[in-house]
Specification:
Elements (H helix, E strand, L loop, with lengths): L2 E6 L2 H11 L3 E3 L2 E3 L3 E5 L5 E3 L2 H4 L20 E3 L4 H12 L3 E7 L4 H13 L6 E3 L7 H9 L2 E2 L4 H29 L9 H16 L5 E8 L4 E5 L12 H11 L3 E14 L7 H12 L3 H13 L19 H9 L6 H7 L37 H17 L4 E12 L2 E12 L24 E2 L10 E3 L2 E8 L6 E2 H9 L8 H7 L10 H10 L3 E4 L2 E4 L1 H9 L2 H4 L1 H15 L5 H21 L14 H6 L4 E3 L12 E3 L3 E4 L7 E3 L13 H10 L1 E3 L3 E6 L2 E6 L8 E4 L5
Parallel strand pairs: 1-4, 1-7, 7-8, 14-15
Antiparallel strand pairs: 2-3, 3-4, 5-6, 8-9, 10-11, 10-17, 11-14, 12-13, 12-16, 13-14, 18-20, 19-20, 21-22, 22-23, 23-24, 25-26, 26-27, 27-28
Helix pairs in contact: 4-6, 6-19, 6-20, 7-19, 9-10, 9-14, 10-13, 10-16
Length: 721
Amino acid sequence: MGKIVVLAEKPSVGRDIARVIGCGTKGDGCLIGNEYIVTWAVGHLVTLAEPDEMDEKYKRWSFTTLPILPETIPLKVIPQTKSQFSIVKKLINDKETDSLICATDAGREGELIFRYIYEKAGCKKPFRRLWISSMTDEAIREGFREIREGKDYDGLYESARCRSRADWLVGMNASRAFTLKYDALLSVGRVQTPTLAILVKRRKEIENFKPEGYCTLTADFGDYRGTYFSEKLEPDTHLKTKAEAEAVAAAVKGGTGTVTQAETVRKKELPPQLYDLTSLQRDANRMLGFTADKTLKTAQSLYETHKALTYPRTDSRYLPPDMIPRVVQTMKLLPEKYQGFVAGALPGGKLPVSKRTIDASKVTDHHAILPTARRADVSKFSEDEKNLYDMVARRMLAAFYPACEYDATKVITAVGEHTFRTSGRVTVVNGWHDVPPLEKPPKTRKSSKPEEEEEGQLPPLKAGDTRDVKGTKIKEDQTKPPAPHTDASLLAAMETAGKDLEDEELVRLMKGSGIGTPATRAAIIERLIKVGYASRRGKTLNATDKGVMLIDVMPQEIASPETTGKWELALHEITDGKQDADRFMDGIRKMSAFLVEYARDKAKPMAFPPDERRKKAGAKRGGGSTVIEGTVCPVCGKGKMRENSAAFGCTEARCNCVIWKDCLTRGGGPVLTAKIVTMLLEKKELKGSTGTVALRDGKILFVPNGKDAPSVSRALVYERK
């Protein structure tokens, strides 16, 4: 009987799967068992070829060779991971191999990774799909018991392939065309450009905002207060001038107020929904100060390394009915500090079921993010991991608590022809508020309403009651511009294609027509910062001058968030078999040709600042680099190290020293920065909070704290060709 090759996306995931299915013998880039061989992709091993790899004429950037619209875009093996591709290719095509199991991440990009490798390797073997939502041993076993045929995911692959080719066509053509037009290195993308447009719009709203003065007037009725309002005002409490406020104050001074309306209504505040990735990123930004990228990486670590969270790259906030017993089990296995909240989430020992949490029709590829049904050893978590796990655990508990109930009281008091409004709120049932969102709750945010409008318990009042006016208070203020975007607010805007939506139900209805996917939005934000179109200061994100200039010369067709939202919706429909992939790609080709024509003939004049990093050769490759002073190349000993978007390399033309920025991330190590590389070249070893990075014998190593030698992550640092 032949073997079954299981292809995982990352070595760490491959090792977990291998342990569960009994593959304990080490091979070259794989782990071998009696029935299975587990290997891994180390991320993307195969990608789309560059234009100049398809035809020499594209090496020189010129309008005469645009638009580039090949019927098919060939695949290429990524040079940096060529050796692992060779291992995978040999294994899957081996005559002893009967079939394959695709065990890459259970999502659109994971599907693309496997299919591209399968195609480039020329493999024709049958394959099945492992689809799991957590990395616990039981989830892996269950996944193998319920394994599905690969063809069941053909729609997902078609969608992923369309996304990949669409980004290539729009990016390659638009970036070259606008770079040539303005003689400045400009990166234009199907997703990043409309995201930038959202930031530019907000920056212009802030810059063009003209503050207007206004006053609010409060009357003191002894045992309660009221804020002046009038239907003639906009907003209804804003008096335009102090003179107007003083006139009303004089008119009511010493007068008697009569209650014309006093009503109390019992209201409910429903518990929050479970987390999907975007809502988790938004809350982590708001409460912990995490960037979207940091939240994703931390959640991914809790999922992969600690097996403490379910699959984080989900766009669903719901669970299927068959998850009910598992949620009960998960709650009972939470760390001790959460056990005091469990009884409230399991009244009578049963999980309360509602359409806000349990709804199979609203579960997409994956259900909402939950802690896994195993006892987590929180002592092994980093501080960031503890905080994020804490948020997810508390959200799961709160989502099953009863609603908060309160009495909302509204009182209208008339003093002559002038009216004053008072609102009161008294909590009757605390409900889900008994579970604070964090172990250390953030400081309560101030209400946007005037403080006089919000009171706790009001005295018993009924229509006809009278009160003397004891005094008045005038507060002068100014209208305020919209706040700069944060990761949280930008993610919300991306989720709804730029529409400012606060209503959760409207946000849900917009799902599938936003910008990017939950799994890619963090990378889009970081990309805008990397290419100089946006900057981050504290929590705020702002478009740079270069970013504003780029959007000013872009046609609405590519800058519009709504357009990209429609494309994303089309990709979802391709997954579901509701739209033809060829029709979608035809539209993308037309858009790519239009962008070239627009850049060449219609784009308005604009003088972009010179890009110091851009050199002729760098422009041909689509990138530039910056020399890091004080460094010495570890290979030739002559040149300095220089940094580009992906790696560090030697300034000497004949030296091929390369250090890839992400060479350690698959093993849990850090993304390398100029500071880390500079210190590493000098000291050869750096100890950090999560582990040790060392430079030895032409290899860069990352050894996690508390781990033994076999778990060391190794990556080639430099090579001579």
